[in-house]
């Protein structure tokens, strides 16, 4: 299925990182320890940042590291430790729905893989695409996409106020 | 590199996230599965951004990251509130709305 130029450096890097990400994601949804799940999620998020670099999107990769690994993971660990005093394996993290979840996930996966293979086949990513610099990205954000940027600022403001109001003891 | 490598990776991560949302009972773990789904979306956006040679996909990916951060903040505040009221964050025990 794959072309003969499979063994180039980017591809080898891609497959190593992709394998790490899939293993990490599977551990996130199967492990019986909430803190371990959070740490496996770090593996997945860091792997995603590496894939963004392979996709020539450095600014998004750096943002991913800052926002996800830096901030969101700390939030998750805070949430874990504020809601569960016990740090260790627990037995009641899953409900009895695995016989629903597994077929749904596998059917969805099969449908998407077949559709993607039929749709894009062996289409290659351009090796000499023009690099999207951070300057171009900021011109996009503060130019044609200014209105969504404003809306996003209000979403963040509302989220901050909402989180404080919800979690405050009064 | 093939376009489909990245799209397949996104699809696999998406399905793992969907499985986690369905199967997990702990609210924090459900939020983590949602993060998996959002990351797979970002991989797709950036792959198509590179394929089409435009910066639109990267802009949207940045917006998705910001919205995901807001979502996690509010979500964990809600989880904390539920925990304070019922001393448990098991989603199966939140059945007060059942008649």
Pick out its properties.
heterodimer; A: 170 residues; mainly alpha; Four Helix Bundle (Hemerythrin (Met), subunit A); 2 domains; 72% helix; B: 99 residues; Helix Hairpins
Short description:
Chain A is an all-alpha fold and 170 residues long. Chain A contains 6 helices and no strands.
How would you portray this structure in words?
- The complex is a heterodimer of chains A (170) and B (99).
- Chain A has 170 residues and is an all-alpha fold.
- Chain A is built from 6 helices and no strands.
- Chain B is mostly helical and 99 residues long.
- Chain B has a single domain (3-86), classed as Orthogonal Bundle (Helix Hairpins).
- Chain B has helices at residues 3-23, 27-52, 56-86.
- Chain B is elongated, with a radius of gyration of 17 Å.
- The model of chain B has no long low-confidence stretch (mean pLDDT 89).
- The chains are: A mainly alpha (170), B mainly alpha (99).
Coarse shape of chain A = globular
Share of residues in helices of chain B: over 70%
Please name the CATH topology of the largest domain in chain A. Answer: Four Helix Bundle (Hemerythrin (Met), subunit A)
CATH topology grouping of chain B = Helix Hairpins
What is the largest interface, and how many residues per chain?
A: A-B, 90 and 71 residues
Shape of chain B: elongated
Please provide the ordered H/E string of secondary-structure elements of chain B.
HHH
Structural class by helix and strand composition of chain B: mainly alpha
Detail the topology: elements first, then pairings:
The complex is a heterodimer of chains A (170) and B (99).
Chain A: H1 9-30, H2 34-54, H3 58-83, H4 98-120, H5 134-141, H6 146-167
Helix pairs in contact in A: 1-2, 2-3
Chain B: H1 3-23, H2 27-52, H3 56-86
Helix pairs in contact in B: 1-2, 2-3
